[in-house]
Amino acid sequence: MNSKRRLYYPIKSEGLHYSVKGPTRLEFITRYPVLKKKKQSHSFQYLIILNGKDTVDVNHRYKVQKTIESVQHPKHKYTYSGNYFINLEKGVHTLELLKSNESKYPVLIRVNSKEFESLGKGNIVLTPMVHQSAVKLISNNKEVQYYECTSELPLQVKANGRKTLRIMNRLEFSDSMGQEESYRLRVREGVKIVGTYYFNTERSSASEIDGRADKVPGKWRSCEISVPNGKHVYSVEVADKGKAVLTRFILY
Asked: Which range of residues forms the domain containing residue 67?
């Protein structure tokens, strides 16, 4: 793989089991094996079970990457990697990765853990290229501007690298939602999916959305994107229909 070797584990019928100490950000990097004669894109799936109760159904579809090979399986090629992210709060968490019945072959996976970084100095707050009016969120008597994002109304931001783009976000809770909810943000650059980020949050008792008495913001969550050298445009969308997320973009 461009002279680099990576160790992947197959998700078989018995699954893979992990115990992880938070707070941390987990990155699930997956590829799907296909026969060399197959050249079109392929879909593959797997399941993540958090702490024995929350089930995340991960779906990817990628083309075959010609430069990837395996010494152990010379008859196979492999897709481009699918990246999925989950933030874990403080404490010990259990993870179970299970095979999906929809996938013919075992999905190959490796898992990275990364600590949260402090922002430090020299931060730049980015404004989306096209957006509706900013939403004011009031927390501890302070006003902070967020931008609403949905599956139908994605947001685009320009970012110059080499930097890190942090996406601060809060789910908008409606009256019909429970005390806790999960949601996903999907980030693209052009047609390429940079990553899909999974969050679980609860209603915030210390914040409110100005002018929206029927909505309650969730506690804030965040994800980070490594921005390479040069100019980039990222599109951010909510991967769950019917949910709205307030977002704020910080480049550092």
From this structure: 9-114
Task: Tell whether 101 and 21 lie within a shared domain.
Answer: yes
Residue 78 lies in a domain: yes
Tell me: do 169 and 85 sit in the same domain: no
The answer to whether position 213 is within a domain reads yes
Cα maximum dimension of the chain: 62
How many domains is the chain partitioned into structurally? 2
pTM higher than 0.85: no
Instruction: Evaluate whether residue 3 is within a structural domain.
Output: no
175 contact partners, CB below 8 Å, separation of at least 6: 214
Q: Which pLDDT tens digits describe the chain residue by residue (252 residues)?
A: 455 788 999 999 999 999 999 999 999 999 999 988 777 889 999 999 999 999 999 999 999 998 888 877 888 899 999 999 999 999 999 999 999 998 889 999 999 998 876 666 779 999 999 887 899 999 988 999 999 999 999 999 999 999 999 999 999 999 999 999 999 999 999 999 999 999 999 999 999 999 999 999 999 999 999 999 999 999 999 999 999 999 999 999
Cα–Cα distance, 228 to 36 (Å, whole number) = 31
